[in-house]
Amino acid sequence: MTSRQERDVVRRLSRGGISLRQLAKEDNIPVTKSILSWIVKRTNNLRYKKRKQQPMLKAIYKQKRVDWAKYHQTWKDKWHRVILLHCVALRSIGLTMRKEEKIFSKRQQGGGSLMVWGGFGYGDKLNLAFPSGRIKATNYQEILETHLLPFAEIIGGPSWIFQQDNTPIQVSKSSWEWFLDNGVHVMEWPALSPDLNPQEDVWGILSRAEYANGRQCQSVAKLKPTIVEAWDNIDATVLQGLVNVMPHRVFQVTYKHGGYIGY
């Protein structure tokens, strides 16, 4: 391997989002995974971290996923009424989004973090929310009050349906009371099921767009406006495609007997 090829390898790995095994399979990389590992070890600003595995689903959770899939197997266009919400933690000098990066810059440890709430449906996407500090149930309800309610009918129609995860602030007693008071129809969502939520794919799209060509934000102040710009630039047809694939995700859950479906 030439010095130029080695620099290219380091540059590729510093962006994150690719494993040594994947990189070694590329035609322009004439070395094995073990050689790439050696390059990482002798490079000061890179370190290797093994990718975390998904938590193993117990039989009870698999059955709940199957029951959920059977209930929703007849949903086709009805998914056009659903607004999907999700949160993610972003870091300046590198993003932690859909999947944990296998290799990343040590300088990440010096960057700040940014909590982002985002959601979308077939009709459009919500404005991003950037809450600060620890989020309580009341803060979550304020986010919904400002970012969801004014636009929900525009995105999902008059009979819109709301999807959320099962975090404590989302399923708290006060949150459920808020949903009832505001007439929000919350759909049931199985636990331990990030693979079912296409919002995870949106975070991945955002990550690739924002950090293309090795670009990195050096501070939270610079990260926020660039995230908003990348979010606004996601085309509506991409979101519609993600919604339209939901029936296939539902089918895959049943086909795999409740196991993870690989999305």
UniProtKB/TrEMBL annotation:
Pfam families tied to this protein: DDE_3
Superkingdom assignment: Eukaryota
Record Gene3D superfamilies: Ribonuclease H-like superfamily/Ribonuclease H
Membrane-spanning parts: none
Residues covered by the Tc1-like transposase DDE domain: 107-222
Family annotation (InterPro entries): RNaseH_sf (IPR036397), Tc1-like_DDE_dom (IPR038717), Transposase_5 (IPR052338)
Any GO molecular function: nucleic acid binding
The protein's name in its UniProt record: Transposable element Tc3 transposase
